[in-house]
Amino acid sequence: MIRSVLILSCIVTSPALAGEIWVTNEKDDTVSVISTETLEVIQTYPTGERPRGITFSKDFSRVYICASDSDAVQVMDPNTGEILHDLPSGEDPEQFVLHPNDRHLYIANEDDAITTVVDTETRKVIAQIDVGVEPEGMAVSPDGAIAITTSETTNMAHWIDTETKELFANTLVDSRPRHAEFVAGGTQLWVSSEIGGTITVFDVADQTEIAKIEFEVLGVHPDRVQPVGFEFTADEKTAFVALGPSNHIAVVNAESFEVEDYILVGRRVWHMDFNGDKSQLFTTNGVSGDVTVIDVASRTAVKSIKVGRFPWGAAYRPTE
Amino acid sequence: MGRDLAYSVIAGLMIGAAAQAEVALHVGYLSVYEDLPPTLSNLDPEPDDIGIAGAMTGLEDNSTTGRFLGHSYTLTTAILEEGDDPLAAAAALLGETSFVIIDAPADDLLAIADLPQAADALLFNAAADDVPLRDDACRANILHTMPSVAMRTDALAQMFLKRRWDDLVMIAGTHPQDTAYADAMRHSLTKFGLELAAEKTWAFDADMRRAAAQEVPLFTQDFGDYDVMVIADELRDFGRYVLYNTWEPRPVAGSEGLTAVTWSPVIEQWGAAQLQSRFEDQHARDMTGQDYAAWAAMRSLGEAVTRTDAADVATLRAYILSDAFELAGFKGRPLTYRDWNGQLRQPIALAHPRALVAQAPLEGFLHQTNELDTLGLDRPESNCEAFQ
Questions:
Q1: How many domains does chain B have?
Q2: Is B51 within the bounds of a domain?
Q3: Structural domain of residue B157, as residue ranges?
């Protein structure tokens, strides 16, 4: 009886596509590669200093890593772990987003109040845009027309026209905005505010606020409930939101903006990514130094995987 | 040629800003000269620009944000020297602006707040940690970004209790600052159900740089056994010579050893590394607690201007004291003001010179409204009536 239950649960959580979750370890100067099949660390590669943001090229042949204290974006061959070259990134690159053209990286330079745009082919900086103090969250609309930088101390989302590389709007949000994502076909922009404890949802057409999502974790003081990274399910009907030092992931109904569930994960949960068919979610837990695997359908944490010190970013790549 | 070019760029920026600068906030910074007695060691000279440097970093943060909103910020500083009249200088500054950040001893601060020119002003106390300023001597026109000494001693008392270091002794200096610290420590220990097993007064006049190894073991021998030795030496005169010279091998806390501080270069969590490096780039030194208090005052004003689109005293004061206000102060949780005495609520760092040990309020110290109110004068304890 017990055995059959175990087998069943294996089948339920077994991913349709083989793949890997790449995790940057901020205080170890490494990336850990987790197999989405075995849920084990299968590789650890050295990187530059203080790796944070991580993303793959469209064909997954390159992985870009923000090596913040090396003042560079590193380009790695994900099949070998070899650093191919560094891209100029401006000072202290923290997060970035790859434009749908697969060529332009929009990089937040945290120490410099600048967003740097780098051409990954020519390896040249093509623009630097003045934004608010401590830029962090980066997003680009699905059609590539708009890029977003959020600034942590200025408390704004800065709207960048990717044609002219100029700001066309600046919208205030609650304290310490951390992460931004376009959803609903690019008609909505979601921005999380860590210290404000909220997510602001904007109408992209006129940059007005549609909704503000608040969180409440039983037994945790509201001051410690700090939304940071978030991701959406394939149908975009559900958002998973990392709540930092409250050690929980919130499950948000993206249509009603209501919080439906809270899932206990590791300590200081920061960013996350899904596996290929989005049946599993992998969260980085900075203080406990591990990654929690969440079964998306049942909204339960199924496993913790030890990685390096201060895991920060996570990115998925298929291997078949 | 180079200079001409630079000039035109600045002018261009200014025209750009002026075109949309609907709101302009002018802030004053007043530093009153305080004559402090000499200390045995010259290891820690106080920076000339202490406090002002923090205000300038805050000004820069505000201006960057203001750029996107058509808000502009300016700062005038008045640094007084020995013999200058604080009241005359304050009156002059208040003629220019109603927003003044002040680094002054408590008596001068109160005299400034009671000037007729300050009646409708908003002053920030960014230096004085005296408890009475938050108690019966409070003024409705003073907000305090510097934590009171009671907030700092409460933080240490929480630490002692949490670690079960309940057998405590204290050595206190004789300067008024030392006495005030020792009083606050006794009060904090009582508040958290602790007490001092023994106390001694530091009254040596030998040069401890040479004599500490002989004198301190003998001086501390009759304390017997204890868990922690508390040092009340707020001028940083003798405390440094007590460490590692005590008769019993026990930790030292208080003004030396494990200290409870407003800010410290060892704070790097909660995004603090960014503020530290911004400050260091601008001023070529570490950020101190007094710099932090001045920064927080400037940023409180900036945050209020950003959210209210106004620059008048009534609007900004009301917003700062309201529930809507929150300052992201790089201490891991939003900072707000106590609307009963104007004190900025803030976590207190428990640190030694090499690392942050803990941050108060420590886990488990609960409060019915806000855990930060376990530090310093809580609403029922404060006799401040000016805010009612």
A1: 2
A2: yes
A3: 150-261
Q: What is the pLDDT of residues A216-226, one digit of tens each?
A: 998 888 888 99
Helix (H, G, I), strand (E, B) or coil at A130: strand
Which of B63, B64, B325 should be substituted to probe chain A, the one whose Cβ sees the most A Cβ atoms within 10 Å? B64
Chain B CB contacts of A194 below 8 Å: 328
* B162 plus B253 within the same structural domain: yes
State the Cα–Cα distance between residues B313 and B55, nearest whole angstrom. 19
State how far residue A216 is from chain B, nearest Cα, in angstroms: 15
**Interface list for chain B against chain A, based on CB atoms closer than 8 Å:** 61, 64-65, 67-69, 271, 274, 277-278, 281, 306-307, 326-328, 332-334, 370-371
Q: Are residues B214 and B113 in the same domain?
A: no
Which of B277, B328, B371 is nearest residue A153 as measured by Cβ atoms?
A: B328
Tokens of B336: 């707000």
Instruction: For residue B261, give the nearest of B351, B371, B373 by alpha carbon.
Output: B351
To the nearest 5 percent, what fractions of chain B are helix, strand and coil?
40, 20, 40
Are residues A223 and B334, on separate chains, in Cβ contact within 8 Å?
yes
CATH number at residue A301: 2.130.10.10
Residue B254 in any domain: the answer is yes
Question: What pTM, to 2 d.p., does this model score?
Answer: 0.87
* A304 found inside a domain: yes
Do B140 and B154 fall within a single domain?
A: no
Q: What is the pLDDT of residues B330-350, one digit of tens each?
A: 999 999 999 999 999 999 999
Inform me whether the C-beta atom of residue A132 falls under 8 Å from chain B C-beta atoms. yes
Which of chain B's residues have a Cβ under 8 Å away from the Cβ of A156? 65, 68
pLDDT in tens, B224-271: 999 999 999 999 989 999 999 999 999 999 999 999 999 999 999 888
Distance from the Cα of A185 to chain B's closest Cα (Å) equals: 28
Q: Do B68 and A170 touch (CB under 8 A)?
A: yes
B275 with B133, same domain: the answer is: yes
Strands of the A300-306 sheet, one edge to the other: A269-274, A280-285, A290-295, A300-306
Helix (H, G, I), strand (E, B) or coil at B327: strand
pLDDT tens for A273-306 read 999 999 999 999 999 999 999 999 999 999 999 9
pLDDT of residue B388: 85
Q: What's the DSSP call for residue B345?
A: P
